[in-house]
Amino acid sequence: MLFNDPQLQRLSQSERLARMRLARSTNIGPVTFRKMLDRFGSAREAIEILPDLIAHSKTSRKIALAGREDTIAEIEAAKACGAKPIIFGDPEYPAMLARIEDAPAYFYAIGRIDLLTKTSIGIVGARNASANGCGFARKISHDLVSAGYVVTSGMARGIDGAAHSAALQVADTHAGGTIAVLGGGVDVVYPREHQELYENLCTQGCVISEMPPGLKPQARHFPRRNRIISGLSFGTVVIEAGRNSGSLITARFAAEQGRDVFAVPGSPTDPRAAGPNSLIRDGAILCDSADVILDTLRLADQNAQLFEGFHQFNTDARQPSADAHHQDFDDIIKSLERDAVISSPKKTKQDIEITTESPDTSPHQKEGRDGQNIFELLSSSPLLIDELIRTSGLSAEQVSTILIELELAGRVERHPGNRVSRIAK
Questions:
Q1: pTM of the full structure
Q2: Which of 15, 142, 162, 296 could form a disulfide with 134 if both were Cys (CB 3.0 to 4.6 A apart)?
Q3: What are the residues facing 181 on neighbouring strands?
Q4: Per-residue pLDDT tens for 115-150?
Q5: Domain count of the chain?
Q6: CA 24 to mean position of chain CA atoms
Q7: 353: domain range?
Q8: Residue 168, domain CATH
Q9: What is the DSSP string of 209-244?
């Protein structure tokens, strides 16, 4: 299922620069950017009319045009880290993403840009995911990429990292692959322990971000990142998520964008299953294997008319609307207010925890953290202790000691076959 149109013309260099300047201008968000292109036909024309718009607008959200030199400096910074700007109107710009109301005016990409025009499925979930949840994410990701599809996620700890890693294992030998959407600059690795994963994604997959290169991620960036994950994707799979997690925000974006939402059910005694279980109650597609997703994709392939009209935006050859020069800018003002709402999303507990990385800790603190990490990897479903050792990265002796302590504390129980689980409360 390919959406790119080989007949699309490439934007001129002057229009590319103008679109980047317009997008980086103060208070011009993605909705206003699109509205101005629709109204004036090109970013160059919009920039010409900006003084009139500023003079006649009656809003506190004043527009200040981004400087040409600042935009060129950003482009040079991107070149230095091997990133390419993908601008709204470029043939490489993903058609699925272009359809959403607040599609980014442009973003930076490193790696296999060809993946951007392939059919994608988003996989998101808890950062403190259980080993069983990570295993399920790896299985679904492996099966989707093996079938030729792309897995999109956010390179976070837990479910995201598991999905990317599994996709990379088969990306070289199949038509599919994986895309990571970052909350900070495309050259900023977060979390730090995903340095190797990031490097592999840059060479074997694709890493993208709408943020300027070098920008460190902040909590407010992640909800904006989430709408790109869902916007790139035909559907989004949620695997383990608390009731107030960022993964549920991604699912909400997907539903609002008219995309399918798949949810993996879990035990009612596990708080991480609360999110997916509630999504299923609200009408999400129950997902217990990759076959559920593949069947939905095959049906969509057979119904090709669903995708007619993709990429109907043009390049700088488009004519402005008849009232482009009319001094009634009410539609632009409304879009400025819409962007203000979009740029200030409600923070989740998960997003707030992202603002800083954990500092170095003492050996005693590290032992306590290792114990908590082991407990978080467990769920109410029995897990092989060997799998727990492999997933945690700790030695067998360390895991054994921690399990004994958790067992004495009445938090875990052992099962036949060298398995262990949380004790349901």
A1: 0.80
A2: 162
A3: 208
A4: 999 999 999 999 989 999 999 999 999 999 999 999
A5: 2
A6: 21
A7: 1-357
A8: 3.40.50.450
A9: ESSPTTPPP-TTHHHHHHHHHHHH-SEEEEES--TT
